[in-house]
Amino acid sequence: PPMVSRGTFFSSLLALFLLCFCASTRGDFVETVYTAVLSPDSVVPSRSGTGGEGIAVCIYDRNISPPSLDCEVQYFVDDVFGPFFAGIYRGSPSENGPLLYEFEVEIDSNFRQRFILDTIELQDEFTSEVYTSKQQEHDFLNGNWYIIISSYDYQFGDIRGALKHQHFMYAKMNNGDVVPRIDENEQTNSRGLAVASYSYFDPHKTANFLIMHDVANASRITINEGQSREIGAADFVFSAASSPLQEAVPYTSSTEEKLLNEEQYMQISSLQRPNGEVRSQLLPIDQLPPVAFTARLDGLSVLPDHVSTIARGCALFSLDCLTLRLDYLVYHTVSSPTGAWMNLGDRYTDGIKIWPLARNEGPIYGSRILTADEVIAFYQQRLYVTIESLVYPEGEIRGQVSDTYNYYAYLTGTQLTPPVTTSAVGCATLRMDEVTNKGRVLNYDVHFMLKEYEEVSVELLHADVGLEGETLHSLGETFASASGTGVFLSNSEVNYVGTQKTYLQVGEPSNSGGAGQLRGQVYHIINPCPFLTSRPDNDAKTPTSSWERYEVPTYIEWGNSSSSLHMLTTITLIVIAMAILHL
Question: Is 434 helix (H, G, I), strand (E, B) or coil?
């Protein structure tokens, strides 16, 4: 019989466990999605009182060079004003700016085009301007781009809408996503777009949808439970199937969880196709999945020789145990980075590079499908991140990936109330340390980038997601970072942090708790693979098993099994796997 190595055997066995026992937590967190609602009222000068409306969904890919922008638009304007033209422009809501990119596809009721954001030259009658990819990214992310659909009669636009980071979710509906699949000979060109804001409180758990589509004889619009390629029951039936349609949808804790896990889809049925003519998953925007591991990056952690640098960073890692997909955010302040890597090695050694991150410049949003060995390395805390530079080609800053800092915050403008469209972003890692006579020590490390370099305050506030809170502690005034152990939490404040009822806010120093530019709810990390745990050093009470004699760098914590049946099933799988491999 063929011989199977111990490493291969246990990697295969781990993969089997993951598929059998782990719940999936999905998320398109890596995508940068901006949306626009187009109307005559937004045209400059305004065309208020005339007909027309539209929705645009644009997905920005910053991880390719040059970056790209994929825009889909669904609209309606009385076609007596046609033919129509469409373009992306630069400018504030009150001005008419230069045309950046023209849609070269047919401007039908639904159209889509992907643009490559390379350096372009903007010219008018008197001036010329070189507009680089980096400048374009800055303006786009800060809400200074807009879309216009225009005709010969209205050169300033029939409808217009600014691209913003303000909606909570979206759907891009088409024939191809319908289940069961529509035969190719019977497919139509019907499309639809939907966007929605979401309120956690006041009103309680409510989504406000705007839906536009071109489905002929539409009969029903529903939100159903189910992942892609699944058919599920309707969670909500809209009051009409017309386009455009605006309607508030109430959510419960159960349906909210389905939404955040991408386990809801929107479907539009017609008289001809009562089982669905167009469909799409409902996709949350800028919602970081639960984080399993964190890292703090600095020059003192670089090995074998420490680096003296003011550059810092933080990293958040979300792991889906069913698909082995890793989503991550790495934020850093290294100037002119030349490389960004995941490395294999413990915190006391200089290890080896194993794969590059999605890009060098921060913030780095990326994803990767892991091997079973890489999952084990995460739990053994044998992975670390390095950011390289011209001055320090072996790494200017480094951070070990672990669960040591077991609280985190993802700082964005979308978490403010109301949401703010901004290129600013940041992250924080925290831990509650020893109890003193002043209270429990909060060990915090906060890093962020604002759209303009300015001094701001960083504060810890008490409130649920979506509510304005009261300031508990000021972490200081700074331009980019705040770290320390000088904050002491009372018993009630410890409870607030532990129950995820606190958030960090970056705002104006003169206005405590207000005028926020960034906000991030403080969450506890989770273990997405409940039978795997990181092994603490020198812990005599750590449970062990016969896995140790196979030199597997992790273990099953049997005491956490939810039932004897769970344990029995696990043991049965081990026996089956061994039998198969030794046949």
Answer: strand
Secondary structure string (H, E, C) spanning 443-503: EEEEEEECCCCCCEEEEEEECCCCCCCEEEEEEEEECCEEEEEEEEECHHHHHHHHCCCEE
The pairing of beta strand 383-389 with beta strand 337-344: antiparallel
Per DSSP, the residues of 348-386 read TS--EEEEE-S-SSSSEEEEEEPPHHHHHHHHTT-EEEE
Residues 544-567 as b/e (b if ≥16 CB within 10 A, e otherwise) read eeeeeeeebebbbbeeebeeeeee
Angle at 50 between CA 44 and CA 51, to 5 degrees: 115
CB count in 10 Å sphere of residue 14: 21
Half-sphere exposure of 328 (CA within 13 A, CB side): 30
And the tokens for 276? Answer: 């669905």
Q: What is the pLDDT of residue 43?
A: 94
Distance, in Å, from the CA atom of 256 to the CA atom of 561, rounded to the nearest integer, reads 27
Q: What is the DSSP letter of 515?
A: S
The pLDDT value given to residue 561: 33
The DSSP 8-state label assigned to residue 181 in this structure reads P
Tokens 């403010």 belong to residue? 416
Residues making up the chain, counted from first to last: 583
| Amino acid occupying residue 438 | K
DSSP H or E stretch at residue 565: helix 564-581
Specify the 3-state DSSP secondary structure of 239. coil
Q: 557: which 2 tokens? A: 């914590």
Res 544: pLDDT: 33
Confidence of residue 223 (pLDDT cuts 50, 70, 90): very high
Provide the pLDDT for residue 48. Answer: 74
- pLDDT higher than 70, residue 318: yes
Question: Do 363 and 329 touch, CB atoms closer than 8 A?
Answer: yes
Are 230 and 255 a contacting pair, CB within 8 Å?
no
Task: Report, as an integer, the average pLDDT of 457-473.
Answer: 95
SS3 240: coil
- Separation CA 361–CA 420 (nearest Å): 23
483-to-36, 401, 427, 473 alpha-carbon distances in Å: 37, 18, 12, 13
- Residue-wise pLDDT for 556-573, tens only, equals 332 333 333 343 334 334
Q: What is the pLDDT of residues 234-287, one digit of tens each?
A: 999 999 999 999 999 999 999 999 999 999 999 999 999 999 999 999 999 998
Pairing of strands 159-162, 145-151: antiparallel
Residue 315: its pLDDT value, please?
98
Global pTM reads 0.87
Cβ of 525: how many Cβ atoms within 10 Å?
21
DSSP string, 255-301: HHHHHHTT-EEEEEEESS-TT-SEEEE-EESS-PPPP-EEEEEBGGG
CA distance 232 to 331: 39
Q: What pLDDT shows up at residue 124?
A: 81
Task: Please confirm whether the linkage preceding 274 is cis (ω < 30° from 0).
Answer: no
* Contact predicate 583/3, CB 8 Å: no
For residues 205 and 252, is the Cβ–Cβ distance under 8 A? Answer: yes
Question: Helix, strand or coil for residue 21?
Answer: helix
Residue 490 tokens, joined = 């009372």
Task: Report the chain's terminal Cα–Cα distance, integer Å.
Answer: 7
